[in-house]
User: What shape does this take?
Amino acid sequence: MTVDDAVHDTLAQYTDDYAVERELHAVPPYRVHEVRVDGRRAVLKRDAHRRGHAAVEGHVHAYAAAETRVPVPPVLAVGADHYLVAWDDTVPDEPPEPDTAWCRAAGVVLARLHADSADAVSTYGSFTTASDADATTTDGDHTASVADATTTCVANDLDGPRMGIADDSDGTRRSSTGTELSLGSSDGVALVVDGATTWCEAVCDRLRGHRQYLASRERSAAVARADAVLDYLAATPDAFAAVGEPVCCHGNVLPDHLGVVDGSPASLIDFEHALAAPPGYDYWRTVGPLGGDDEPALVTAFREGYESVRPLPTGARGCARAYRLVNAVAYLEALFLQRNRDETERERVAERLCDAIDEWLAAARADGDETTDG
Assistant: This one.
């Protein structure tokens, strides 16, 4: 089956009145198309690699729409390997360079997401759905498809079969390890966290996943850095001390994913990196790409926006070194998975990331593993 056939087959589940307008992105592990369904402009995001999890992303997006003050376009439908969301013109086709107004809006939108999800998330780790909490491939990659490949319709104006939800006999939602979870999606599909007791445990689980992928691509230098970061965390139990309670984190707030109008957040999209994590995860995933200490005005604007909604939790700005190390390993995986750079540039960026990891680890050894704000 070709990509075009798969897109048409996906849309045909919901309506005969559809059109495929153009492909927006073809970056593993997803393919994204602009489409029209029942005359409505929309975006279809589909898995294109076994590491894709578009269904989970769709349910997290639907949760944000129903249960938080975060402005998001409405989710129209979620299927086993895809989700369909209404088009939103406030998200720019060509993202601008972030300025202080954008950074302040980014702080506001993340603070709202964190504040409104704090009571619903009780453990750290990756989101999944109750019906596919145990679905993994033999090499540990997450599989978004459920066994019967049924489809959930979120909006009433799209027809289609419903996805059954696995409940325990007493009606409570539990993860595969029996942990009770309170996070639910408005469409009747339960979101659960395949959780860990501590944030450091959850981080190490993710690092092992990154390492596994890098090893499968025979990226020995990157694998060595993943091992080095895992060793550092094992030897430094307080590397993530006082990080705070888990919330629903977005994980990738960039100008590509957040539309801002008149200085206020207008629309947030792309929840593929969403994670049950302490607020510091979102802080460093946002502040790092903004330039960190090299762009103090942008970072200050982000903090001011965040703290206009809720205080930045104690520890969110701390653990800087540990967050930077973990994010660098994640960026190494993305670099080789997404393949959106030519080979020469990819190798250059990988070398720079490896060098940064080496420098941060050397600094940790030299100054006694200082993990305060850096």
